[in-house]
Structures are given as C-alpha cells and as structure tokens.
C-alpha cells in the first residue's frame, strides 16, 4: 500500500521515499509472525512522516483495516484540524497550525475537546483569574464578597455583577470556601410543658396544649427561606404534659416528629429516619431527632420534652413566635404578643395556629400550693441543682442555677406525681454548664432521670435532606433543587435518591 502508485500515499512518494518504511514493515511483520498491529504501526509511521512534511494522504486505515480508536462523541478523519475547538480557546497547543491537515479524531457537532475527551459544549467550565470554574458555577470574584460571578456555558466565560452578603452575614473562608456565613446563630428552647427560652435569651412560662408557632418567618423577604416550627404539648387527664409533637414546615414539606413515635421522623407518610445507615456520633448521649436545612435552620427534639431551634443571624428581626423576634432585645418578646385591642392577650392567643379537640390554655401559670413546694420539690430532684457538693457544684459560679431551680420547682408543683418533669430542666442546666465549658458530674442514675427514656435504642437520627439551591436573588441556583450531603437516605417516591430533587 505504501508504494502503490494509485494508493493513498501516492502524493507522498516524491517527498519521502517509502522504501525504508517498506523494508522496516516487511522485517517487523516477519519477526512478529505477521501480526496485523505491526502492519498498522508501520503504515502509521509513514503516514505521520508524510503529514509532518505537509503532504495530504488519503484514507489508508479503512482498506488496511487499521481503525484509529476514537473516543466517544468523535469521528476519525484523515484530514482534520490540528487546532480543535476546546473548552478553553485561549489555551492552544503551541504547535497548532490552523492550515495543517492531520489525521485525527474530530469531535462531533456540538461537542468540544476537553482533556482528550469530547464533551457537550455546555459542559465546559470557565477560567477565572487562572482558576478553572465548573459550568454554571456561582462563585465570588473577589475576597470581600462584593462581586458575584457565574460561569456562563454559552459564552464560556464568567459573568460578574455587584453583590454583597446578607444582613447578619459576613464574608469569610470556611473549610477552604470563601462565602457569606452567618455571624452567629440564635437558639431557642421549649423545655418540659411550660418553659420557653427565646432567641434573645428571655424566658417565660406558658402552658397550652393546642398547636403553637414556636418560630417562623414573619418578615418575609426574598433573601430568606420561609419556614415554620410548630409545637404541641400533650395533655393527659386534664393536665398538661411535655411536648408531644414538633412540626417543621419548609420548602412546601411538613416534617413531623412525635413523642408517641420515638425514633421516627415523618415526611408525609414516609418515615425518613428508618433509612439512616450510618449511626452518627451521639451528642451528649441523648437520643434526638435532628432536622437540618441547607440555610442553617436546625431543629432538635429528644422525643420527650425538649425542642431546640437554631437559626443563623440572617433571620434576626425577621422571626416571630414563642421564640421571640430575635432582634437582640429581651424586653420586647412579650410586647410583640400584645395585640392593639387586647392587653391581656396571652402567648397562646397570639401564636396558636391550630385547635386540637380538647386542647386548652391556662392563662396564669400558678402553683396551687406554693410555699410548701420547694422542699418537696427538692426531694424530688430539683435540689440537685443547688447542692454545692453535688454534680453541678462546679458550675454555680459560671451559670446561675436559680432560674433553672425555679423552673424545676414550678413544674414539680404543677405535676406533683411525676418525678420525671424535673429531668429536662436539669438536663437543660447541664447543657448550659457544658456550653460554658464546665465539666459536670454524673447526675442521672438508673432510678432518677435514667438515660433510657421512651426513645431507648433509637439512636440519634439526623436528617438533612431538606435543601434547595442558594436562595440568593442572583444566579439561577434558586430554581434548582439540590441534594444535601445527608446521612440518611430519603426513600422515593417523595425524594429520589441518589438524586437531586425534593419537588
Ligand atoms: Ca426581642
């Protein structure tokens, strides 16, 4: 084929004598026992030499049965360009000659070369200040978070516009990623049947067994993802009992955790906790349901008596509910609840969202037999908080125990025959001590506030499936649902997994 006068190499004969290549070919085939690959190699060597000299050769691979293996989405051609379209046209090989004709695998229509692969053009990234950015990637174009950029796949370059961090956020690097992060987080707690600690640090007692808004967005804004956390206390024989139900409403979904169903976290009729495959490190030994969202809301419920809501500082002054408005001022928590026409309104009047048959509210929380109670309550366990030589002794100088003791006595008085009402309040003080960096002694025993409550064995369930693209007004991300790294697999049909939707 090399020497054929009418063959594919005929134009090359005058430039490069095929004889040497022919002799080498015969020798190679001879020693390799006629291996076909040797023939292809020899023909390719001659073809390459011809093309290097600028001679156009014709297709020899078909008749010699030496196909050039081409990667996916590309076709073989004897005369292709040495300057193929790539994702990044600015970076061309220095040898590229636009007029040269080379044997090549050319990307099909709509595909471009990227690292020896032909990929769809719209999957190309962008180069920004020497760094490669993924297609449609949204990133900060400066170190102070004032320029937001997006890699445009059609233009194959980033488009930037002025932006800034939201109220309550600051620009910093976390885990190697520069972004706007909340300056701080606010935490609110509902403990036992009657105690509430607001985001601003206020506390009050309120008893009602209807469904109430614990926290939720009241000052709606495009920049904040709307959510609501609702709670309901249980009631048994005309008496209140601790939190029986926690509901988180976000992204059009309602997540329900019930005391009567320890270990379960329901989204509609689907229990999403049962899919937890890897047990999470237990936090403080408790058994808790943790609902986390991508915008920083965390709701924790121990299936017994304590609900914690944590929100990033972006939500300051935008919330309302029993947890308060999170504006940094403790004084106005109750004022928000006072309606213009009624000075005597109660938290229940204001934040009740649903009546449950038989649900009730006690406007005044008073212990009927105040006076003789503290002593009795001390015997029932509250005294543990005060004992100088008790498990909390080391904490007294750091966190005032008086507030917790009062709450404890209060609840012990309200529920005189239920020793366990003291447990969540003591646990709350224990948590406050730990948060202040004080190590406390063992206070739970087998007979008193035993760790093994109704949720025994259920472990800690963390479900962080609720997530959506960045709510920033800039960029197309808000339209796209994203899965979030989740320790729990969310079963279909509600959510496809592994997948990207929660529609
Ligand atoms: Ca406030």
From TrEMBL:
Listed Pfam families: C8, TIL, VWD
A cellular component term, taken from the record's GO annotations = extracellular matrix
Q: Which residues form the VWFD domain?
A: 186-360
Q: Which residues does UniProt assign to the signal peptide?
A: none
Where do the TM regions start and end?
none
Classification via CDD domains:
TIL (cd19941)
Which UniProt keywords are present, listed alphabetically?
Answer: Disulfide bond, Glycoprotein
Q: Which domain of life is it from?
A: Eukaryota
What name appears for this protein in its UniProt entry? Answer: VWFD domain-containing protein
